[in-house]
Amino acid sequence: MELLFGLAQSGLYYGQEVGNGTSMGPSRVLPDHASLFVKGLAQKGSPHGETMTKMDITYKIQRKIGEGTFGQVLECWDREARELVAVKVVRSTKKYREAAMLEIDVLHLLGKYDRNGSRCVQIRNWFDYRNHICIVFEMLGPSLYDFLRKNNYRPFPVDLVRELGRQLLECVAFMHDLRLIHTDLKPENILFVSPEYVKIPDYKAPSISPTEGAYYKRLPKSSAIKVIDFGSTAYGHHEHNYIVSTRHYRAPEVILGLGWSYPCDIWSVGCILVELCSGEALFQTHENLEHLAMMERVLGPLPQHMLRRADRHAEKYVRKGRLDWPDCATSRESIKAVMKLPRLQNLVMQHVDHSAGDIIDLLQGLLRTEKD
């Protein structure tokens, strides 16, 4: 067990698959040392039968199912409740312990008002084991990102996107009513409740199929989802200025240093729904200026009043009240990456067969560049 927790150093996405399990999907980038966990246990014997006990509850470790920047996730058997649970083992540093305690507080607050547990992942328990905060969650299914990956990044049906969007917006509204801002909404942090799915023929599959199953796609048996990962949640009493959100889902006001609040979650939801409609992230970039240029390409010019108020870190992206693009682009490849993007409505219509109008109206409302 000491080895097990000693290796819990690199964080958590409910999202990295180990073996053939289906209950948690993979994160996008697998750390080089991810295999150390399994190798280390192999040197000491099988993880099956290892236990960790706290507060008279014993959890039998089954396998590792997730890993990210601040811990690992273990699938465990709760001997008392007689059910599988997911145990998030947090890295034993001050920064991550504090984030874990914030997450526990937020989870208890959410659970108090979401008694049916229909919107957000439910906490079962938590304890401190050798300076590692361990949070016990209900076991859920794969993430939206994992589902996309298993479908070779083919879009979700538009009716499913609408249903997922409805649930996601209801969850965000619920959090905002409690004056909570998630700040890290992305497909990896939204999980299907059930891992069950069906395979159906995909008549839009490529004529040449290099991978097994390319002529079929998966559909979840149930569209029910829950939001996870509340370690970055902020309280919305006032605007904040530090950087939040994973790059692809980051709102323009965050990049420009204008201060952010509840709308940054709404922007992230818009980016997520476009990704579900198209099969790929809307803004695939790692540079601030390129990111802002992509926003203008897809959504139209950023308001001058936003650009003029850019903070000292972002003012270099602005010249005479306008985005300094393409003059300050880092490369021709960067310019090409921006120029190849279609307008939002054209992008959606490439993938949506019917009723594109209402989903475009929704996305345009979510991806507003004007701040209220």
Automatic annotation (TrEMBL):
Keywords attached to this entry: ATP-binding, Kinase, Nucleotide-binding, Serine/threonine-protein kinase, Transferase
Binding site for ATP: K88
Catalytic reaction list: L-seryl-[protein] + ATP = O-phospho-L-seryl-[protein] + ADP + H(+); L-threonyl-[protein] + ATP = O-phospho-L-threonyl-[protein] + ADP + H(+); L-tyrosyl-[protein] + ATP = O-phospho-L-tyrosyl-[protein] + ADP + H(+)
Residue stretches making up the Protein kinase domain: 59-372
Gene3D superfamilies per the UniProt record, alphabetical: Phosphorylase Kinase, domain 1, Transferase(Phosphotransferase) domain 1
GO molecular function: ATP binding; protein serine/threonine kinase activity; protein serine/threonine/tyrosine kinase activity
CDD domains: PKc_CLK
Transmembrane spans: none
GO CC terms of this entry: nucleus
SMART domains reported for this sequence: S_TKc
Enzyme Commission (EC) number: 2.7.12.1
UniProt keyword annotation of Lyase present: no
Catalytic class of the enzyme: transferase
PANTHER family in UniProt: SERINE/THREONINE-PROTEIN KINASE DOA-RELATED, SERINE_THREONINE-PROTEIN KINASE AFC2-LIKE ISOFORM X1
Family: Belongs to the protein kinase superfamily. CMGC Ser/Thr protein kinase family. Lammer subfamily.
Protein name: dual-specificity kinase
Source organism (scientific name): Hevea brasiliensis
Record lineage: Eukaryota, Viridiplantae, Streptophyta, Embryophyta, Tracheophyta
